[in-house]
Amino acid sequence: MTANPAAPIDVAVGILMKPNGDVLLGQRPEGKPYAGYWEFPGGKVERDESILDALKREFVEELGIEVVSAEPWCGVEHVYPHAHVRLHFYISRDWKGEPQSLEGQAFAWQGTLGVEPLLPATIPLIEWLDRVRYS
Q1: Which domains, ranges and CATH numbers included, belong to the chain?
Q2: Partner of 60 at 20 to 30 A CA spacing, among 2, 8, 15, 44?
Q3: Cα separation of 89 and 78, whole Å?
Q4: Is 65 in contact with 93 (CB distance < 8 Å)?
Q5: Roughly how many angstroms between the first and final C-alpha of the chain, as a whole number?
Q6: d(Cα 70, Cα 73) in Å, to the nearest integer?
Q7: Which tens digit of pLDDT belongs to each residue from 90-99?
Q8: How many C-alpha atoms does 101 have within 13 Å on its Cβ side?
Q9: Where is the Nudix hydrolase domain (predicted)?
Q10: Residue 133 neighbours by CB distance under 10 Å
């Protein structure tokens, strides 16, 4: 049994949710691990940064929108071949601006998720998310 000596990397992940339950997914750009896979937008938490501050910063950098408020939803740890990540998911129903592709990534509003492939850590969340979206 081999232990992963690297401590998990904290990642802030945001689920933008429209009133009708649609959520925004982004496609990982070329040059990144799992390029072409779909995921919820977000990014690495910097040293001395709160999860929510990281989320807000990433959404400005990646999508050009301002998250007004977001609620913590769940946390998931996942070990990829290239990294051990601790994902902190937030749901936001309140933001300013329209998402733009500032890093060249494709993105899509999804009701029933029709994009593939999904990033492995995202897959188990879809069923849980449906309970939030359509309850």
Answers
A1: 9-133 (3.90.79.10)
A2: 8
A3: 13
A4: no
A5: 42
A6: 9
A7: 999 999 999 9
A8: 10
A9: 7-132
A10: 17
